[in-house]
């Protein structure tokens, strides 16, 4: 069987390690390149315990990324957004297709970058070209053809998947959407900060970057695409004292005339042929234990029938931030780009990192 040469730039981070494990087990992939300054010269076998022919693959220094990536068909960038922005033009010019796990190519509006990512975007033409890689909501055909796939953010994935079918069907009242979301600490990457140390995080729970989180414009952009109108929303991120997983609770109201049965049917129908999305019978059944270590998203909704707030809709969604929220979704996009089964190497998974 022909194997495609794939590279991972930024292979020592949480999502890069997850991607390395996934691709090492992918029968259609020859993992050709892994880069990391922290681990340069060391082997994948020694660092990650990967066995077989790949065990001797060495981490290359970041400064050789562009030169060595020329031997790859597709490269995953598991790097900070500024680094992705620097690397992508050169990779595309060399004929290498890219799946970028950072936020560098997710937003169409260049003006949002200084506000939410603290840099001015240097490649606006590529923002036009990049295809947003959320297969269940974007076009699978466009992902398959793309040179550059912008892999979605972790919170943005869970939030968009929770309510998109209801918005698409016109079942939610405009202007009433709130997302309350909580993530494990691996969402912040390995780089760490004082706020993320074990002693600070353990047994604590708090919101962060309130009303200025970078995933707010990303969620709004995706939902506007499915609703066909702008979607005002409030998004609040919280830090969970756990390693992995994101749980989102979305609050909205049914549009006038819409029914609970229509909302339930819209959710089920939207994901009936999406192998990674499971619609549960109740929001109570959506939990991190059901998704961590997998590429799944579980989702469910309830409509208030107690009479306290008629028409209130609550939707919950859960994902593993490192899998469906990062490396797993990147492999799902790779499978589509290469015309392989969408579930290749993603159907059985376990937690790898940390
Ligand atoms: N963690 C998560 O849940 C998610 C993360 N993302 C995004 O994916 C990307 C990677 O995230 P994550 O794995 O958490 O990050 P980490 O902080 O865990 O790892 C960052 C990686 O980038 C490399 N790197 C850092 N600086 C540079 C540089 N200047 N040039 C080249 N490489 C560099 C590091 O390699 P080394 O230092 O060894 O050279 C390391 O491999 C980020 O853009 C993040 O926002 C997206 C969705 C979810
Ligand atoms: C817990 C935690 O800190 N999570 C990160 C999510 C990381 C991510 O997906 O950020 P990008 O948009 O840069 O890819 C955050 O809230 O920023």
Automatic annotation (TrEMBL):
An example Gene Ontology biological process: L-arginine biosynthetic process
Active-site feature positions: 154
Catalytic activity: N-acetyl-L-glutamate 5-semialdehyde + phosphate + NADP(+) = N-acetyl-L-glutamyl 5-phosphate + NADPH + H(+)
UniProt xrefs under Gene3D superfamilies: Dihydrodipicolinate Reductase, domain 2, NAD(P)-binding Rossmann-like Domain
Pathway(s) this gene product operates in, as recorded in its UniProt entry: Amino-acid biosynthesis; L-arginine biosynthesis; N(2)-acetyl-L-ornithine from L-glutamate: step 3/4
Keyword field: Amino-acid biosynthesis, Arginine biosynthesis, Cytoplasm, NADP, Oxidoreductase
Top-level class of the enzyme under EC nomenclature: oxidoreductase
Family: Belongs to the NAGSA dehydrogenase family. Type 1 subfamily.
NCBIfam families per record: argC (TIGR01850)
Entry protein name: N-acetyl-gamma-glutamyl-phosphate reductase
